[in-house]
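Hi all, posting the design record for the shared folder.

TITLE: backbone redesign
STEP: 1 of 1
STRUCTURE INPUT:
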């Protein structure tokens, strides 16, 4: 039993290390990160906001990343306008009840999305219907959509304005990749907005 446990732990460490190594040498991914940071910083400087949406573990990512920006990440500075569309149970259940679960994010984008805002749409499969509807609503409102998916990209690869694909087909590893990238992007946005702590 102990050997099996150790083998499993070793395997999981190896897969995570291999994933981060693969991401670190992916020049296209590095270019996407820089582009996404630039888009986000430009939106914030224009008085726009960042919105985040996802289901399950991706909902946790949406809330986590919004929290890093509204509160702080590496250093004290003014809060940045970011909102997770996953948190208001009254809104979520009203939309789910009145229109169906597929609309829980799209309806919010329609309500508060403004031209020049940015939507971070997170789905490990790239096929979540409510995320795809949110992306479509974003397009109609002039909101830039940035997708986070796995290696395949799903439907989001063609539907999002920008789609960051973690090079894995395994849901937990895709989520680990998303978490790393979310932290990286939040830190870079903070640094660019406040010049490494100098507002």
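Okay, here is what came back for every position:
SEQUENCE:
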């Amino acid at each position: 039993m102990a050997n099996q446990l150790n083998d499993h732990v070793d395997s999981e460490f190896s897969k995570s290390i291999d994933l981060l190594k693969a991401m670190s040498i992916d020049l296209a991914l590095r270019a996407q990160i820089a582009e996404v940071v630039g888009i986000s910083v430009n939106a914030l400087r224009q008085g726009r906001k960042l919105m985040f949406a996802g289901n399950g573990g991706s909902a946790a990512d949406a809330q986590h990343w919004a929290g890093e920006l509204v509160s702080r990440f590496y250093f004290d500075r003014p809060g940045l306008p970011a909102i997770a569309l996953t948190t208001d149970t009254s809104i979520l259940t009203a939309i789910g009840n009145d229109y169906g679960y597929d609309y829980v994010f799209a309806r919010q984008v329609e309500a508060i999305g403004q031209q020049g805002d940015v939507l971070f749409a997170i789905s490990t499969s790239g096929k979540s219907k409510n995320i795809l509807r949110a992306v479509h609503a974003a397009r109609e409102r002039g909101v830039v959509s940035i997708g986070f998916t796995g290696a395949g990209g799903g439907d989001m690869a063609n539907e999002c304005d920008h789609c960051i694909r973690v090079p894995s087909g395994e849901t937990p590893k895709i989520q680990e990749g998303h978490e790393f990238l979310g932290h990286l992007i939040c830190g870079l946005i903070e640094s660019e907005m406040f010049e490494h702590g100098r507002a």
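COMMENT: Residues 171-194 form the longest helix (24 residues).
Let me know if anyone wants the other runs.
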